[in-house]
Please model this.
Amino acid sequence: MSTNPSIHRVAFGLQCDDLIYTGMSRAVWTSSLVPDCVIKIEERAGYFQNVVEWETWQRVKDTPLSRWFAACRWISPNGTILVMERTRAAGDAQYPEKMPAFLCDFKRRNYGMSGEFLVCHDYGTNMLFENGMTKRMIKADWSDSA
Model:
């Protein structure tokens, strides 16, 4: 494996096209190599949101609860790069009044459509550890804030 930063920048440029969003710990990019996915780059130490999303997906992927989550496809060995299914924008009518108790951070930008379902595509912070894989629903106070 190369340790040359120039080669890493070129490889990054081959994989990542347009910057979609920058959050508190990650940047999200489109990719022409995997056009049905986004690439999440986590450069800030100590948040581990990519790892949380990966581990969450590993626990729910073979359960009925997977319908609430965008699928994770791959994670780098150190967790800094995550490849996740790309969602499309949801219309106002597609945001339900109630959501599962294991989801939180009900900002519209954290959710999108996968097929016919509204899914969370930013679940690096969730309540799955606290509330478990419950079927309980809670009121979702949807927000457009950043």
